[in-house]
Structure formats: C-alpha cells, structure tokens
Amino acid sequence: MGVGDVSKRILLGRKLRSSQLGESLLRKRVALPIFASDALSSVAYAPDEVFIMLSLAGASAYAWSWKVGLAVALVMLTVVTSYRQTVHAYPGGGGDYEVASVNLGRTAGVTVASALLVDYVLTVAVSISAAAQYASSGLEALNGHEVVVASGLVLLLAAVNLRGVRESATWFALPTYFFIAAVLGMCGYGLLRWWRDDLPLVESASLEIQQAPGYEGPLTTLALMLLLARAFSSGCAALTGVETISNGVPAFRRPKSRNAATTLLLLGLISISMMMSVILLAREMGLKYVDPDDLERLTAQGVPVEGYDQHSVIAQIARGVFTDFPPGFYFVVTVTSLILVLAANTAFNGFPVLGSILAEDGFLPKALGARGDRLAYSNGIVFLAAVSIALVVAFDAETTRLIQLYIVGVFVSFTLSQLGMVRHWTRALGVERVAANRRRMHRARATATVGLVLTALVLVVVLVTKFMHGAWITLLAMGAFFVVMQAIRRHYDQVSSELAAEEQDKVLPTRVHAIVLVSRLHKPTLRALAFAKATRPNVLEAVYVDTDAAATNRLLAEWDERRLDVPLKVLHSPYREVSRPIVEYAQEIRRASPRGVVAVYIPEYVVGRWWEQLLHNQSALRLKGRLLFSPGVMVTSVPYQLQSSQAARERGARDEQRVKAGDLRRGRVAGTPDDHRDGGTGGAW
C-alpha cells in the first residue's frame, strides 16, 4: 500500500462494499439532525435579518416583528405540508427537480436543478460564515480571521462527509439535539420570566436607533409596505433547507417516504416554535439591532457608540435570560455556533445526491454519480467544498452580504415544485375513480395550490426587494448552471447518437496492417513482435524512427545479425521528431486502404516505484495521445515487467496477508485480493 493509499485510509477509513449500502441508511431520529439542521439553524440568523430590516425605520418598527414572523411561519407551514405530499408522490430522491421534470418538462426541471445547486452552495457559505462570526465574537483571537476559520470548517465538514453517512450522522446528531434543547429551554425560561414579570432587558436595550436615510419621519403606507416586504423576504431565510429532505428520501430507512414525511413535520414544528419565541423575546427584552456595517446608527443619548461590539440576537437574549446562570449563556452560544457549522451538512448530503441524479440524467459529468470508497458521492462533496470556499473568500465571510443571495434559488424551486404538484394531482384526478382517493387528491391539490400562490408571492417580493442588493448574482449563477447543464446534456446526446450500433459496424476490416514500434532491439521489442505475430495480421512490419545515423546503423546491423523474419522500416526524421513521422506513416497506410485497420504495438516497461516513471522515455505516452485522434488506427500496449514490478507485487501480497481491522468479525484472516494493488507503467519505447 503506497503513501497515498495509507493517507486515504487514515482520512476516510476502510473501504465499504457496495452490498453495505443499506447499512448506512438513516433512522428518523438520526435523519432529523442530518437533514433538518439547516432549517433549524436559520433561527440563528433569520430573526437577526428581520430586525435589521425593520431597524431602517427605527426601533418603533419592531412592533411589526412578530407579525412578520407569523407571516414567515404561515409560509413555512404551507410549504412543509405540501412537501409531505411530495415525498409520498416522488420517493426517488429527486425532490423539486423530479417533480418539475416529470410534470413541467425538461426546461423547468433544469431550472429547478440550477436553483437548488446554487442554494446548496450558498447554504454552506452562509452557515459557515455565520458560525465564524459567532466564534470570533466569543474568542477575540479569531477577530479578523473569519475567512480562514470558515474555510477550515468547510474542509472539516467535507472530510467528515467523505467518510460516509453513518459517520457524519454520529458527528452531527447530538449537537443538533443540544441546539434544539438549548434554544427551546432558553425561550421557555425566558417566557416564564416574562409571565412572572421578571424578564430582564438585553444589553442593547439602553441604546437608540437612528433612522436610515430615506426613512426619516413618519412612513407613508407605501414605504411601510416596502419595509415590511423587505423584512419578510429576509425572514424567509428560515425556509431554506426544507427542500433538502425531499431530495434525500433515498437515505431514509424503510418505509422511506413515511419516515421522510414525519421528519418534515418535526422540522416545521420545531423551527416555527424556536423562531417565533426568539422574535417575541427579543422584542419584549428591548433589543436594538442594526446592520453590522451600519453600527453608527446605534446611539446613546444621541451620540454614536464608539467601538460597540454588537452580539447576535440569540446571544443577547441568552445573556439576559440567564443573568443568574452564566453556564446557560455559554451553552446556548456554543451550541448555536456549532449548529451553524453542522447546518452546512444538509448541503453536503443534498448536493451530492442531487448531483448524482443529474449525472444519471446526463446534465452533469458522470463522475458526480460515482460512489467513493465509503459509499458517499465523493466528487460532489469535493466540488461543493471548493465552490463554497471560493464564495466565503469572495464575500469575506460576511453573513449579511451573503444572505442577500440566499433565498432566491430556494423560492424558484419552491414555486416550480408547487406548480408541478398541482399538475401532478390534476393528472391523477383524471384517471382516479375511487371516491376516497379522489377526496384525498383534491385536498392535496388544494394544498399545493395554496403553496404555489404563497411561494410565488414570496418570490416576487424577494426579487423586488433584494435584486439590487445581490439577488442578481444568484440569478446569474443559476443562468450559468442552466447553460452548462444543457450543454452537457447536448454533448452526451450527441455522443450517444454517434455511438449507436449499426449493422455496418459488424463488417470486418478488409486487412490489418500491424506496426511494431522499435526503439532498440531488446526483450520488450521481441515480446511485442511475438505478440503481434500471434494476432495474425495481413501485414506485419517493425518501424524505427531515425534521429541518429550511428544508432540507426547499429540497429540495422543487429537486426540482420539476428535474422528476424519481420521487415524493419526506417522513417527518417531530419528534425529529430519521433511522434510525427509515425503518425503520418500510420495515416498514409490508412488512406491507402480506407476499409483496413492499422494496428500499432508499443512496447512498455512496467515499473514498481513511482519515481521510476520519471526516469524512462515518455515518448510512448505522447505518441498514444496523438494516435487516438487518427481514424482507423488501433493502439496496443505490450507490457514488459521489470524487476522492480516484482517487488511491487510482493508488497501487495504482503498487504493482502496482513490481518486488518474487521477481518476477525467478518470471519477471515486476510483482506480481499482487490483491496490493495501497486505498480505503474512507464514508456519503454
């Protein structure tokens, strides 16, 4: 086993057989933290965004905060109810993409897929950036290093997910439940103190908020509606992650759809409870909260507060509620920071699954549909991590800037999915005759219709209020994904059309002209000549490129001395090129016999050490690359094993005989023969 294999095993663990795929499926109690952590973690920043938007008109506008929260809760409840029907109707894991593709056509499906892919990337970037901000507020040493912290956290998440679903579930389940318990416990204790008229104020309660430019004085009805629309659209960030469960149904244990629907219901109820409690407590505790880039609007007796460190909404509530119990404050802040990291895990589960489905349908490279050693879609995980880190760096890990890009893609997919479900139930009603089933379908269609209206309205509000604040970037990214996926599909369709078998493809070539390439007369050359003879071509000749007259004369003399029965053809190369004369000669033969085949045999060394590759002539590799573009030319490598390759085989045999972890449990004392291979090839010719 080489150094690379050892490092891979340390990082990822032992390989898993394909038959072990069922062992990695999730129970509901594990699936909830895996798939719901994104939607649940939005409690850590969605209320913040509501208060930031309302603060434009001053603290008096906070009176609308609970009404905005209720509007967001209503949309979430409707969407969750509709998605519960979606997972029953489409349990294959395609979610919104499958719904749109089946019911609205290919263009709608690719549009939804583009939106979801962008949203998954933004989920990672936003959640990790928020976690880095929480960490820097708790640890002064991290101030100014948020980008480095966020990038490191993305890499850590990618490494954990590359180990597979079961391992990531173990890592993420408990912290998510701790977060739920911490926030609900904090809110419950806070509401109890409020009922007892013992609720303290938050640290920012003594401050004042100066109205933003353009919002001075009493607001007109139109200005107020626009302000509430902006607050509502920002608060709808709480809905991100709801669709992840519908995309990840295959990861649930049987019955998959029922378990997924139950998990969706739990997600909705918990998320709404936490969000409304946080908004209500923040308002009652006198919170003053503005955009972190606009802190000069926070004043004390009309004077801006210099060097004010504005903590998050949950952090301020926790410090106030737990005035008599500091460990409660630290526990809430710690698990909130942790859940923001884990929230990105929903994207690391959803993005690879969606990518594999799109790859299977031909809209993304096939490599995204291949499972890695640990049965995870490794290529999708690596791609998601790379793009997310690029976003974190580009936006300096600032959540407020990233959040403006966030929910556009979500509501594009929500709207098209709801429209697709309306059409799905309409079609089903056209063929269903059982009265009970028809009543159920009518209810389902009504729910989907309400969801369509609400999500479409939210989408319009989001586009109107956020377009100039960064939403245009999301639309541009979605358009780029759409164009790329359509181009990939056209390419695969074209390749499939070209590769379609026809009757004429079975016609044998009229003749085979075999060429054995010769660099000098040695064992690899003689073996290649023998192999070429065994194939019984119509014509067989050896070919040598003359780049040195003295070497050519020595080869000709040795060829005659050995009395080989294969003619040796010398191609002169005045400019000392090797590949070009051979390619041109093969093409010339092909032109002379268009229905024939030119078979080129290239002797190659097989070496056992990676550095030996660099010590041998690589002209064979370059030549094979050029011959691949020559129609009617077939290239065959004839390997010759050097002594170092035997050492590599012996190392592999020793690795196979070594007892490895799990062998005793599986009832064997050695690993499978396919687990460890070593060796390499290098050009001999």
What number is the mean pLDDT? Answer: 81
Q: State the share of residues found in helices, binned by percent.
A: 55-70%
- β-sheet strand percentage: 5-15%
- Main pleated sheet: 6 strands, mixed
The best one-word shape is: elongated
* Uncertain residue segments: 1-11, 16-23, 669-683
Topology, number of strands:
9
Class by alpha and beta content? alpha/beta
CATH architecture of the largest domain: Up-down Bundle
CATH topology of the largest domain: Amino acid/polyamine transporter I
In the residues, how many domains can be counted? 2
Q: What separation lies between the terminal Cα atoms?
A: 28 Å
Top-tier CATH class of the largest domain: Mainly Alpha
Radius of gyration from CA coordinates = 33 Å
Count of helices?
22
CATH superfamily descriptor of the largest domain: Amino acid/polyamine transporter I
Describe this structure in words.
The chain has 685 residues and is α/β, with parallel strands linked by helices. It folds into 2 domains: 26-492, Amino acid/polyamine transporter I (Up-down Bundle); 509-683, 3-Layer(aba) Sandwich (Rossmann fold), CATH 3.40.50. The protein is built from 22 helices and 9 strands. The chain has helices spanning 3-12, 28-41, 46-54, 65-89, 95-104, 106-138, 146-162, 165-195, 221-235, 244-247, 256-284, 313-321, 326-360, 378-394, 399-431, 435-466, 471-499, 523-534, 549-562, 579-592, 619-627, 643-657; strands at 208-209, 298-300, 303-304, 512-517, 539-546, 568-572, 597-607, 633-641, 680-683. The strands form 2 sheets. Strands 4, 5, 6, 7, 8 and 9 form a 6-stranded mixed beta sheet that branches. Strand 7, helix 21 (619-627) and strand 8 form a beta-alpha-beta unit. Helix 2 (28-41) runs parallel beside helix 11. The chain is elongated and about 110 Å long. The model is unreliable at 1-11, 16-23 and 669-683 (pLDDT under 50).
